[in-house]
């Protein structure tokens, strides 16, 4: 028998409790004041209910805090690796990747030191050493000799200026990006602060294209989601193209990155 992940354990428990109450998804959704599609996503393990939604479910099912405890003790510690495991399966098959980041450098372009600082600052409950190892392993898809995917990395200018790990780590990270951008299959473009599209930045995301279609990964402060619904991926692709239209060219972006590395992040 396969072992359920904490995410799927909670998902099946919500479905079991709903069915035990003789309710359908639409009825439960109305009681929690959410959409039926969100309830479906909970029960399929695609989304993890937020604490306020779980509190409402606790009252409906009279579970006396059990669901909240599952989230706190099991899911919070397990999800960082779950997200990456699910996305890595998609990423490894990709022929192209469109990455948009607002505050940090994309994981595929991070140095070891920068990635370590990101995990430490985020206070992830997952094992940092394991997460770092997984991130560095993922990066190998960009340097493999056998048909690496095309990567277009779109960065908000803030990602180049936010202090992650200190001046030396930032300097080395920016120079690493410039070096990676020399590869034919990697394009790095920066969206300057002055662009009006900055007001539309809500969360980072990545779109992967592969033979069978497209999928996306959307990240936030609490968790991440792998998106496979065609209409939702299409929305993200339109957003990416809108943002990219306001970005500096590849060569201009590399010059800016190199200049900031020397002017902003070189210790005197």
TrEMBL record:
Q: SMART domains this protein is in?
A: HTH_XRE
Q: Which domain of life is it from?
A: Bacteria
- Where is the HTH cro/C1-type domain positioned along the sequence? 14-68
Supply the source organism for this entry.
Thermomonospora curvata (strain ATCC 19995 / DSM 43183 / JCM 3096 / KCTC 9072 / NBRC 15933 / NCIMB 10081 / Henssen B9)
Q: From the Swiss-Prot or TrEMBL record, give the protein name.
A: Transcriptional regulator, XRE family
Could you cite one Gene Ontology molecular function of this protein? Answer: DNA binding
PROSITE patterns on file? HTH_CROC1
């Amino acid at each position: 028998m396969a072992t359920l992940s904490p995410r799927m354990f909670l998902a099946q428990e919500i479905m079991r409790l709903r069915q035990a109450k003789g309710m359908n998804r639409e009825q439960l959704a109305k009681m929690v004041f959410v959409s039926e599609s969100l309830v479906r996503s909970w029960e399929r393990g695609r989304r993890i209910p937020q604490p306020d939604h779980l509190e409402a479910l606790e009252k409906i099912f009279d579970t006396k805090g059990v669901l909240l405890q599952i989230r706190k003790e099991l899911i919070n510690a397990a999800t960082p690796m779950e997200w990456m495991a699910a996305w890595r399966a998609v990423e490894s098959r990709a022929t192209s990747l469109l990455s948009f980041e607002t505050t940090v450098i994309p994981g595929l372009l991070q140095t070891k030191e920068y990635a370590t600082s990101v995990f430490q600052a985020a206070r992830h409950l997952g094992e940092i050493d394991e997460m770092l190892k997984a991130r560095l392993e993922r990066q190998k898809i960009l340097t493999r000799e056998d048909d690496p995917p095309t990567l277009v990395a779109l960065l908000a200018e803030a990602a180049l200026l936010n202090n992650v790990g200190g001046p030396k780590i930032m300097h080395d990270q920016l120079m690493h990006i410039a070096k990676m951008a020399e590869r034919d299959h990697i394009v790095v473009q920066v969206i300057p602060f002055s662009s009006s599209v900055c007001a539309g930045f809500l969360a980072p995301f990545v779109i992967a294209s592969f033979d069978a279609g497209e999928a996306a990964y959307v990240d936030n402060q609490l968790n991440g989601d792998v998106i496979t619904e065609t209409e939702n991926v299409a929305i993200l692709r339109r957003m990416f193209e809108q943002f990219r239209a306001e970005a500096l060219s590849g060569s201009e972006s590399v010059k800016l990155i190199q200049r900031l590395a020397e002017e902003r992040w070189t210790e005197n």
